[in-house]
Amino acid sequence: METRGVHHIGIAVADIDEGVTTYGLLLGGVVEHRELVPDQGVEAATVIVGGSRLELLAPTGDDTPVGRFIASRGPGIHHIAYEVDDVAAALGELTANGAELVDTVPRRGLFGLQVAFVHPDAVHGVLTEVVSVVREA
Amino acid sequence: METRGVHHIGIAVADIDEGVTTYGLLLGGVVEHRELVPDQGVEAATVIVGGSRLELLAPTGDDTPVGRFIASRGPGIHHIAYEVDDVAAALGELTANGAELVDTVPRRGLFGLQVAFVHPDAVHGVLTEVVSVVREA
Predict the structure, then answer these.
(1) Which of residues 33-72 of B touch A (CB under 8 A)?
(2) Which chain A residues have a beta carbon less than 8 Å from that of B66?
(3) What is the pLDDT of residue A128?
(4) How far apart are CA A58 and CA B8, in angstroms?
């Protein structure tokens, strides 16, 4: 699969404001986008740190994917997202190489990105996302 | 603290060869450096994926830092490293901003890099490394 490299690193935080503040104070991070997505159970902010992008994810409640992640493992690094030109083509190649997928077709992710997740079991425990920055209308 | 952005993402894997193979097959990753460091209890390989760098870390035994990480959490994302020009200066700024450090002075890390780790409690559960690519003689 061809990728342009890491698009962002997803990080689960208990509170989005505290996360943004910490990354600003310690690492000079600057907020790029911020979005509340109730149907995905997250409040998210992308933070640019020296040209790299972090995606901070705070749960809107305990019974959400990020809420359950934090309950079981604590806050911390959640996933790695790689940028590709074509998510559907990437999924085809991943499947051809035997990778188990979470999303078998591209879906709308945070910030209007087209995304799909690969199962962590396929990548030695790393929840892996493929992202295309071609935003839907 | 000024950073050039993410230098690498550290990933704990059970077996370095399997890790390298998976990242090559699924994501087109190409090995940059590889090193066995018995006194740190790791076999490490940096893998370039589309211009981004992953640092795969396999333990040389169960009673090693990476071995204990895998025993308690399973394989997966281990840390984020940010590139800085001067590790000592970065540590000074981090301390001034109240961050608890693992390494209060720079030390020699993998691949001859000058490194220091920030305590995960200071960064919402994320083990955070600062790295300078100025290699020691």
Answers:
(1) 49-52
(2) none
(3) 98
(4) 24
Q: Which of A108, A113, A106, A103 is nearest to A135 (CA)?
A: A113
CATH fold of A5-135 reads 2,3-Dihydroxybiphenyl 1,2-Dioxygenase; domain 1 (3.10.180)
Contact residues, A window 89-118, toward B, CB-based 8 Å cutoff: 94, 97, 99, 118
Task: Give residue limits of the domains in chain B.
Answer: 5-135
Structure tokens at A102: 């979470």
* pTM assigned to the model: 0.96
Q: Measure CB to CB from residue A49 to each of B3, B12, B97 and give the nearest one.
A: B3
Residues of B in contact with A75 (CB under 8 A): 124-126
Does residue A137 have a pLDDT over 70?
no
Of A62, A82, A70, A71, whose CA–CA distance to A130 is shortest? A82
Q: Does A11 touch chain B (CB under 8 A)?
A: yes
Q: Is A137 on the interface with B (CB under 8 A)?
A: no
- Number of Cβ within 10 Å of residue B4's Cβ equals 16
Residue A75 sits at φ, ψ, to 5 deg, of -65, 155
| Mean pLDDT estimate for chain A | 95
A112 pLDDT tier (thresholds 50, 70, 90): confident
**Looking at residue B112, what is its pLDDT?**
87
Q: From residue B48, give the alpha-carbon distance in Å to each of A5, A15, A124, B55, B74.
A: 8, 32, 17, 9, 23
Complex ipTM value: 0.95
Query: Is B111 within 8 Å of B98 (Cβ atoms)?
Result: no
User: Hey, of A117, A124, A127, which one would you mutate to test binding to chain B, going by the most B CBs within 10 A of its CB?
Assistant: A124
